[in-house]
Design a protein that fits this description.
Elements lengths: L1 H14 L2 H30 L6 H16 L7 H29 L2 H23 L8 H22 L2 H31 L5 H35 L1
Keywords: Membrane, Transmembrane, Transmembrane helix
GO cellular component, one term: mitochondrial membrane
GO molecular function: enzyme binding
């Protein structure tokens, strides 16, 4: 076991230079802070009388745009971090109604989805880090094409109300978010090698991936639970 762990650690050290490893530590530490902020947002929505509704989505988009528009000059890191944590908070508030409904169906679904999301995220992140340099960056065009197609699919389904299209969009979205974990992780590494130290925006990109996987897993697991219950009643 020890040689295996040592080999695994050496693989990271051989593929990732010390500045890149330090940058990734900053990115993932910031990502964890954002996830904690999102958890607070979920708690606020579920267990207090504060109901932001659609306003939280608008506010979240505004905070994200402000973060992106604020340059990373080394002097406004705290401000940009505040924008990111605010975005995490509003994202959690936006997830609140979904998780509240799921908690009535089966509270364990939330824990299962969170563990599943963490496992998928970690595995895809490690796979991206240990892959050949730039080997996943080719996914960028494919992922953006798929994202655009899914946007049109979602728009069309507003009028068609097709269950098949909804399910297709749901599962394709899960695949898309997993692909973005591979792509964004390698892109972050390459950006750092080119001199970028913007760990706040890099954490934002990974947080969007993480929350996207989590949301879809929650919905898929909830659908499965409801189907199982209907079969038992029949």
């Amino acid at each position: 076991m020890a040689p295996t762990i040592e080999t695994f650690i050496n693989s990271f050290q051989n593929r990732l230079e010390p500045p890149v490893r330090q940058h990734l530590k900053n990115v993932y530490a910031t990502l964890m802070m954002t996830c904690v902020s999102a958890s607070v947002g979920v708690f606020v929505d579920m267990y207090t009388s504060f109901q932001a509704g659609f306003l939280s989505t608008i506010l979240g988009i505004g905070l994200m745009l402000m973060l992106i528009a604020t340059p990373d000059n080394g002097k406004n890191t705290k401000l940009r971090l505040g924008y990111l944590l605010g975005f995490g908070l509003t994202s959690g508030i936006g997830l609140g109604p979904l998780l509240e409904f799921v908690s009535f169906v089966d509270p364990s679904i939330i824990v299962t989805a969170l563990l599943g999301t963490s496992l998928v995220f970690v595995c895809f992140s490690i796979a991206s880090m240990l892959a050949e340099r730039g080997s996943w960056l080719f996914l960028g065009g494919t992922l953006m094409t798929l994202l655009t197609s899914m946007s049109f699919m979602s728009l069309a389904n507003i009028f068609m109300q097709s269950h098949f299209l909804y399910q297709t969009h749901l599962y394709l979205g899960l695949v898309l978010m997993c692909g973005f974990v591979l792509f964004d992780t390698q892109l972050i590494i390459e950006k750092r090698r080119m001199g970028s130290k913007d760990f706040v925006q890099h954490a934002l990109e990974l947080f969007i991936d993480f929350i996207g996987i989590f949301r879809r897993l929650v919905i898929i697991l909830t659908q499965k639970e409801e189907q199982d219950r209907r079969r038992k009643r029949d």
